[in-house]
Amino acid sequence: MAEAHHVAATMERILYEVKKVVVGQDHFLERVLVATLAQGHLLVEGVPGLAKTLTVKTLAQAIHGSFRRIQFTPDLVPADLVGTRIYNQKNGDFATTLGPVFANLLLADEINRAPAKVQSALLEVMQERQVTIAGESHRVPVPFVVMATQNPIETEGTYPLPEAQVDRFMMKVLVGYPTADEERVIVERVTGPAVHVTSVTTTDELHALQAVCRQGYVDPALVDYAVRLATATRLSEPDIRSRQPKPLQELARYITYGASPRASIHLIEGARALAFLRGRDYVLPEDVTDLAPDVLRHRLVLSYEALAEGVSPDALIMKIMQNTAAPDKPLHSHANFQRAVA
């Protein structure tokens, strides 16, 4: 438990530095820390002006890491992201110029403004943590987190993200407007003296915390629960649908494609990180249930009937969770015993 308290204390100090600048958005900030600790990527949907860019930039300062921001536009080409080979006329050789993806924290701003060819340039780097240019592989810095933003207001001139791209994001977080009190504090803070953000850790220390997080105990019953949640979204498959309760079978007409196995993986990885943020080195059912909507909502492909009736992914996920029983809490002593045996 000492390691869990150390992780929680370090992440709390990081959060304190971020909240010097960012007001409110507690759910969003917690998910950013979960993604950072679990080595996942984050897809954020919200209107402009909600401190999405500021959050990532401030987090980079707090961990003393590198930060890059790419503004996605229709005229981008893949080389603008990953880099390219440039011919040097002086010596007649080709030199590799690395793109802005080589950073600890990468912000892909309005990622749906660029065509699929450009969006797909991120596929390799998000999954493999490397970029291949002219047959040569280049590793990105560690840790490496991509946070992509989408504007839900304007749809003209946007391109839907390829499903392979969407599936690589651990979570999709919806960011809403601040309250009136929070907005008052935002105005006072932005129009007042500049706030200094202190680096409380380094990228090497954060990488070590990520390694500690991966050693957290997850009861097999919770793994089974995560799998059952993901499987319950695949109602388009007749054999899977037939094994579900009748209330879930009735949802089949709303879902064309369900979540992939990455959803189960990300549920467990994210829940383990969330447990460490809460000062525990073992996962409880509420860690999984708290993250389930964020992990699953972007992985559901809705049918035309769902779109016509205004059925949202969140509503379907809530229905699935209501009809998928969570396991009992694993005993703390049992978790300690399992870690001792391992």
Task: Describe this protein's structure.
It contains 17 helices and eleven strands. It has 342 residues and is of the alpha/beta class. The chain has a five-stranded parallel β-sheet with strand order 2-5-8-1-9. A hairpin with a 4-residue loop joins strand 3 and strand 4 (93-98). Helix 2 (26-38) packs across helix 13 (261-277). It is globular, with a radius of gyration of 21 Å.
How many angstroms separate the termini?
Answer: 15 Å
Q: Which spans have pLDDT < 50 for at least 5 consecutive residues? A: none
Helix content: 40-55%
Strand order of the largest sheet: 2-5-8-1-9
Q: Determine the strand fraction and express it as a percent band.
A: 5-15%
What's the helix count?
17
> What integer is the average pLDDT?
85
How is the secondary structure organized here?
Blueprint: H1 2-19, H2 26-38, E1 42-45, H3 52-62, E2 67-71, H4 79-82, E3 83-88, E4 93-98, E5 105-109, H5 116-119, H6 123-128, E6 130-133, E7 136-139, E8 145-150, H7 163-166, E9 171-174, H8 180-191, H9 203-213, H10 220-231, H11 238-242, H12 246-249, E10 255-257, H13 261-277, H14 285-296, E11 301-302, H15 304-309, H16 313-322, H17 332-341
Parallel strand pairs: 1-8, 1-9, 2-5, 5-8
Antiparallel strand pairs: 3-4, 6-7, 10-11
Helix pairs in contact: 1-3, 2-13, 10-13, 10-14, 13-14, 14-16
Structure summarized in a few sentences:
The protein is built from 17 helices and eleven strands. It has 342 residues and is an alpha/beta fold. The chain is globular, with a radius of gyration of 21 Å.
